Amino acid sequence: MRRYDDTMNFNKNWNEYKFGFGDPRLQFWMGNEALYALTNQGNYSMLVDMLSCNGRYYYVKWNLFRIKNETMKYAVDAITVESYNTTTSIVGRIRGRAFGTADNINVYSPKSGKTCAEHHGGGWWFQTCTEFHLTGNYPNCANISSNNDENQRKMKCMAISGFNCNIGCLLQAATMKLRRNN
């Protein structure tokens, strides 16, 4: 996955996330079927690079990342946090979480009564909708709202600034990179 501006819409349905979308040279989602096939042929690590709206770079590295098949809703099967430069390691909490989109429900937002994907955009391994979400609605970093609820519906990593989702936790760019472990 690569995302760096609002020209690619990540509010897609289950099949689009299943098979992938976008251009791998630009912005894209590789597809959950490809991600499943790749991560189940050996041990893979994943590095997530993030650029926050305040211009700081953050990362999390999982030395093991694997998802289950479509029948299991591409749930994160194995994940082990190796290192990170955020304030907490909540980015590891997606273990066991099923992937969800607006048309394939997995978790509801307690505030809105909608699915996490309906309320926050995109598709993801939602836990509580708002902690770590790289496919959420793209933020306008030049015009950040002081409304914490509005900010929580955007592309973010709350491990950066905690549950007060201010400019620091909103992301203007993110990339997920896989590598086979030797």
Indicate the mean pLDDT.
86
Counting helices, strands and paired strands, the structural category is: alpha+beta
Strand order of the largest sheet: 1-9-4-5-6
Give the low-confidence spans: none
CATH superfamily: Gamma Fibrinogen, chain A, domain 1
What count of helical segments does DSSP give? Answer: 4
For this structure, the CATH topology is Gamma Fibrinogen, Chain A, domain 1
Globally, the shape reads globular
How far the N terminus sits from the C terminus, by CA atoms, comes to 22 Å
C-alpha Rg (nearest Å): 15 Å
What's the helical proportion of residues?
A: 10-25%
- SSE string: EHEEHEEEHEHEE
- Largest sheet geometry: 5 strands, antiparallel
| Top CATH class | Alpha Beta
Known CATH architecture: Alpha-Beta Complex
What is the number of beta strands?
Answer: 9
Give a written overview of the molecule.
By secondary structure, this protein is α+β, with helices and mostly antiparallel strands. The protein has one domain: Gamma Fibrinogen, Chain A, domain 1 (Alpha-Beta Complex). Helix content is 13%, strand content 27%.
Features of this protein?
182 residues; alpha+beta; Gamma Fibrinogen, Chain A, domain 1
Structure summary:
This protein is an alpha+beta fold and 182 residues long. The chain is 13% helix and 27% strand.
Secondary structure: elements and pairs:
Layout: E1 2-3, H1 14-19, E2 21-22, E3 28-29, H2 32-39, E4 44-52, E5 57-67, E6 76-84, H3 116-120, E7 132-133, H4 148-151, E8 156-157, E9 171-180
Antiparallel strand pairs: 1-9, 2-3, 4-5, 4-9, 5-6, 7-8
